[in-house]
Amino acid sequence: MTIFAVIVSRLSKAILTLLAIAILNFFLIHAAPGDPAVVLAGEAGAADEQMIEQLRERFGLDQPMYVQLGKYVAGIVQLDLGYSFRQGAPVVDLIADRLPATLLLTLTAFVVSLALGIAFGVAAAARVGKPSDTVLTTMALLFYATPLYWLALMAVLVFSVWFGWLPGFGYETVGANYTGLERVLDIGRHLILPALTLGLFFTAVYMRMARASMLEVSQLDFVKTAKAKGLSDAVIRRRHILRNAILPVVTLAGLQAGQLVGGAVLTETVFAWPGIGRLMFESLAARDYNTILGVFLVSAAMVILFNIVTDIVYRIVDPRIGARS
Amino acid sequence: MWKRFRSNMGAMIGVVMLIAVIVIALIAPLLFPDGPWQMVQRPFLAPFAVDGLPLGTDTLGRNVAAQLAYGAQVSLLVGLVSTLVALLIGVPLGALAGFYGGYADEGAMRFTEFFQTIPNFALAIVLVAIFEPTLFSITLAIAIVSWPPVARLVRAEVMSVRTREFVDAARLAGLSKPRILIQQVLPNTVSPIIVMASLMVATAILLESSLSFLGLGDPNAMSWGYMIGAARTVIRTSWWLSFFPGIAIVITVLALNLIGEGLNDAFNPHLSRKGKA
């Protein structure tokens, strides 16, 4: 398959998946206890009979289910994710507003954790069985067991409250009105703690994968050949083992994207990071279901897009994949 | 196999830590007969500030140590039950897909793939938010987002066991297909399922605590995530309120991961030796 054909087939599959999620959303609203109109209105609508009446009319809640479902899905296809009565704005606008911050956070966390994870994993594999390997694997085991949000809170406590080194709150300094490079640096400073605390869990995951993959590849015959040729251990590791060991790590890392997006809800909540995760958290307390379901759909779309990109990068890096399938 | 597990120091540390958590959860009502919600002293007492309150009091003057002990009950219960429910969904689905193949396999795997694409924490949030947070809905939501890897694992195992000679022998002996699946094939897939299940309990505990942290905990059940969430806003003045429940989560999850890895090494001695080579 050519790359183009791969993209087309993956995108059409993605659209089907998103449609299925939209249908799932629809049934969730109807499965929720209580009147769907009240559910859609959230807390804001609960007090207002007239608004609920309007909602009933607008969503045709007196019509048969399949008509309602058609209307709902048609709305989503036209990027109408409903209206947030709580925030007084269409859900699409709310999400579009917050999406850049989430993309910045998750992509930074992904790149940092993948780079650190592979570096530590390779280092541990090279020193397998020695004390430094034990220290690295134990650290990974610890971070793997640590709740993201708790690590984030502790980081705020230590680096922001006690030492005062880094801001532990928000996206940029409020009221500073920085422009240009100064603004970029300011956002960068605010990004450090959220990205690192979100990334540490995944660093642990990737490190374990990279270490295992390095050890597995180092058992293969071509490594023995390289050794027999008289190449040094460092060269064999870098040129022969690493190149082959890294591919499965990148694929598995791509599959973790969903968890990364889920983790962003927690990280953004702790750091008051103005992304869609924080939006979801705010909507939970307000029982603003339209927004919750909208964020859910968009985060699924993000994950699917992420997987497609990883898949394509992977096919470019390793042409064997395309040839096999 | 049991010998190999016992000689694994990490796994034994995990067992000891887990037993400690289980014991605390079980004797919580004996240690703290007043329950976790009772106000016992003035709020925001630091650890050891008052005798009998080694971990201090929370924002409402409740005993943090008591909350931790009762929180262990919720964590273990939700972790265990949601994993069992996930197994109840994943094992039959994966077994049928792997054993019968064809359309059954195709359909089951599309269904599984769909659930694997959805970001699982986001789905759990949506489910609990819509169906109101109760222990039942939280457990079910965690099970619903956790079963897909089980189905895939069981399918792969069944597919490989299915082609072995003893299965051919069973077929020649005239055993029916369902009987072959249940009596001959499935018992041979148990060990990887046990390994996966122990790691799933750990993940489920993390998920439950994350949901409660966001305010999606059962309002009638004290949980570690809820404690951290409630203490979030006072972290500057009362760090211990969020510190100790976090440590409790790390200990429990770490213990389960260590046990899972120990079991994995014990079931697959070949792989574990390679890792240590």
Describe this protein's structure.
By secondary structure, chain A is an all-alpha fold. In chain A, 79% of the residues lie in helices and 1% in strands. Chain A is built from 14 helices and two strands; from the N terminus they run H-H-H-H-E-E-H-H-H-H-H-H-H-H-H-H. In chain A, helix 1 (3-31) packs across helix 4 (65-77) and helix 1 (3-31) packs antiparallel against helix 13 (289-317). Chain A starts with a helix and ends with a helix. Chain B starts with a helix and ends with a helix. Chain B is elongated and about 75 Å long. At the A-B interface, helix 1, helix 6, helix 7, helix 8 and helix 11 of A face helix 5, helix 9, helix 11 and helix 12 of B.
* Share of residues in helices of chain B: over 70%
Structure class of chain B: mainly alpha
- Low-confidence blocks of residues of chain A: none
The SSE order of chain A reads: HHHHEEHHHHHHHHHH
What is the overall number of helices of chain A?
Answer: 14
The strand order across the widest sheet of chain A is 1-2
Q: What's the count of strands of chain A?
A: 2
- Rg from Cα of chain A: 24 Å
Tertiary shape of chain A: globular
β-sheet strand percentage of chain B: under 5%
Could you give a short account of the major beta sheet of chain B?
A: none
The H/E string of chain B reads HHHHHHHHHHHH
Oligomer: heterodimer
Biggest β-sheet of chain A: count, sense, barrel? 2 strands, antiparallel
Descriptive terms for the model:
heterodimer, A: 325 residues, mainly alpha, two-stranded antiparallel ribbon, 14 helices, globular, B: 277 residues, 12 helices, 74% helix, elongated, disordered C terminus
Present the secondary structure layout.
The complex is a heterodimer of chains A (325) and B (277).
Chain A: H1 3-31, H2 36-46, H3 49-58, H4 65-77, E1 83-84, E2 89-90, H5 91-126, H6 131-144, H7 148-162, H8 180-217, H9 221-228, H10 233-255, H11 257-271, H12 276-286, H13 289-317, H14 320-324
Antiparallel strand pairs in A: 1-2
Helix pairs in contact in A: 1-4, 1-13, 2-3, 5-6, 5-8, 5-10, 5-11, 5-13, 6-8, 7-8, 7-11, 8-10, 8-11, 9-10, 10-13, 11-12, 11-13, 12-13
Chain B: H1 2-6, H2 9-31, H3 64-100, H4 102-117, H5 120-130, H6 135-162, H7 165-172, H8 177-185, H9 190-213, H10 224-231, H11 240-267, H12 269-276
Helix pairs in contact in B: 2-3, 2-11, 3-4, 3-6, 3-9, 4-6, 5-6, 6-9, 7-8, 9-10, 9-11, 10-11, 11-12
